[in-house]
Write a structure and sequence with these properties.
Layout (H helix, E strand, L loop, with lengths): L1 E6 L4 E8 L4 E9 L15 H19 L5 E6 L1 H5 L3 H12 L3 E3 L2 H13 L8 E7 L4 E7 L2 E8 L3 H8 L7 H15 L3 H6 L4 E4 L2 H12 L9 H14 L15 H17 L6 E2 L4 H13 L4 H12 L4 H17 L8 H10 L11 H11 L7 H12 L15 H18 L10 E4 L2 E7 L2 H4 L3 H14 L3 E7 L1
Parallel strand pairs: 1-4, 4-5, 6-9, 9-10, 12-13
Antiparallel strand pairs: 1-2, 2-3, 6-7, 7-8, 11-12
Helix pairs in contact: 1-3, 4-11, 5-6, 5-10, 6-10, 8-10, 9-10, 13-14, 13-17, 14-16, 14-17, 15-16
């Protein structure tokens, strides 16, 4: 049983699902429309009140989660926490409230998960499809075939920006709608030719806002009842007649949807105009369902992150045998250091695989190039936090340790970077075979033990370890080598 928590700009939402061997069945859902995106001040910081309301919401979600025996929980945050300048300061409080790590995902990763949720919910595996998700802070467009994504983009406009920016104090008139639509078109016009160039069979809309628009059209007899431009314009005219957000009363629409409906409608009209979409199908699937499927795939060892790393290695022509050996050594040494939890285990292994990817740029300073590449690459399945951690490990694989700054205060990171540095040294010294004779401990100091005859069989090992001893001494850690036999 898995849980997916989506910290969106409009609402915080939760799905708990069970995989029945064929599909994921949602057995519990929760929604809290706190409108976090409206809680950003003029400087781009979350206000104290917005953070308090968000933490209270997360604490309520924690109570829901605690009632179930869950195999895995993933909490993802989208646009508002991507752009909030004080997001890092808020995260510890938020994570403490819900009791799980919070991953601030990129727009591209958000798009991937949205598409995964849609694709796994559809019966036609060979269908070519376009998927649109209009969120509170961003809008995602994805084109794919079956489970494969061909094109994905995240655009920095959503219902909060369009609603608050153009329908001031909730006033609705024709001029405001026209301005909101023209503004939204500006976000999509450059990308439109790319999406038009792909041939797709069906366009799907996955967001709650889009489904609300669809229900309002269908239940109020607007246009032909489908999501077409004619129906959208009929809904637009009906909203103009209400005159204000507070006056909106439409069968099939929840009252808390009204503030975001106008902005969402403007974006939807813009997308359908720019991409020449004749009709769009609403679908009850998206980000949260995608997170649940991603957890299910990870549990069955079909981790998208692993695929991303392997594709990255091939793209930059990395020696995969050498990379695999380094990753295996690092993982073995790290296990011997008994980390506090397994949160760094997989990132360390992937960092070992990717440690020489920077050589595609230059053999000089390749660890610096590799760190930059990994932190800034679009790696499907990874969060920004994952990539920053891997970037720091790759940067720290060699050379001085001062560049790692405050991360050296985190015990598991120290264990991980030590394991990777020793793995790289062993690879340089061409040590092959089992590591059963290697002892490694870290308490107040680092203690490394290996067979005495290694120094004869691998002449450069002594040189590399002498340099390593000096690097650790510079950051106040004693490094001792003991020879056995």
């Amino acid at each position: 049983m898995f849980a997916a928590v989506d910290l969106g700009s409009n609402s915080f939402r939760l799905h708990i699902g069970h995989y029945d061997g064929n599909a994921i069945r949602v057995i519990k859902s929760a929604r809290d429309p706190i409108r976090l995106g409206a809680g950003l001040d003029a400087d781009g910081n979350l206000t104290p009140q917005a953070m308090r309301v968000a933490a209270e919401s997360l604490a309520r979600f924690a109570t829901v989660l605690a009632a179930y025996e869950l195999d895995a929980v993933r909490v993802v945050a989208t646009n508002t926490l991507r752009i909030a300048k004080n997001a890092d300061a808020f995260l510890p409080e938020a994570e403490n409230a819900i009791g799980y790590p919070i991953e601030i995902i990129s727009g591209e990763e958000e798009g991937r998960l949205i598409y995964l949720g849609v694709a796994c919910s559809l019966a036609n595996p060979g269908e070519r499809r376009l998927v649109l998700d209009i969120g509170g802070g961003s809008t995602e467009l994805i084109i794919g075939k079956g489970l494969d994504i061909l094109l994905v983009d995240s655009f920095s406009t959503g219902t909060v920006r369009q609603s608050d920016g153009f329908f001031i104090d909730g006033r609705i008139d024709a001029a405001s709608f026209e301005a909101a639509i023209i503004s939204a078109c500006g976000y999509f016009e450059d990308a439109a030719p790319l999406y038009k160039a792909h041939v797709w069979d069906t366009a799907y809309g996955s967001s709650g806002t889009l489904r609300s628009i669809s229900e309002a059209i269908a239940k109020n007899g607007l246009g032909d009842g489908r999501l077409t431009l004619a129906s959208l314009n009929a809904l637009k005219q009906r909203l103009i007649e209400f005159g204000s957000v507070a006056a909106i009363q439409l069968p099939g629409m929840k009252p808390d949807r009204a503030p975001v409906l106008v902005g969402g409608l403007a974006i939807l009209i813009a997308v359908m105009q720019e991409l020449d979409i004749a009709v769009m199908q609403p679908i009850e699937a998206g980000l949260r369902m995608g997170v649940l499927w991603d957890l299910q795939l990870r549990a069955t060892r079909r981790d998208r992150r692993e695929q991303s790393v392997r594709a990255f290695l091939q793209r930059f022509q990395v020696d995969e045998a050498r990379a695999g050996r380094t990753a295996d050594i690092a993982a073995t040494l790290y296990a011997r250091l008994r980390p506090g939890n397994d949160a760094t285990t997989r990132p360390l292994y992937w960092s070992g695989l990717l440690h020489e990817v920077g050589m595609a740029v230059s053999h000089s300073g390749y660890h610096k190039h590799g760190a930059y590449m990994i932190e800034n690459a679009d790696l499907s399945g990874f969060t920004n936090r994952d990539q920053r951690l891997m970037s720091r490990l790759i940067l720290g694989q060699k050379g001085n340790l001062h560049k790692l700054d405050a991360m050296l205060t985190e015990p598991d990171f120290v264990r991980a970077v030590l394991s990777l540095r020793l793995a790289v040294i062993f690879m340089h010294a061409r040590i092959e075979g089992s590591l059963q004779q290697v002892g490694l401990r870290i308490r107040n100091r680092i203690e490394l033990e290996f067979p005495r005859d290694w120094l004869v069989a691998h002449p450069t090992l002594s040189f590399w370890l002498d340099k390593e001893r000096d690097y650790w001494k510079e950051v106040g850690t004693d490094f001792q080598v003991r020879l056995a036999g």
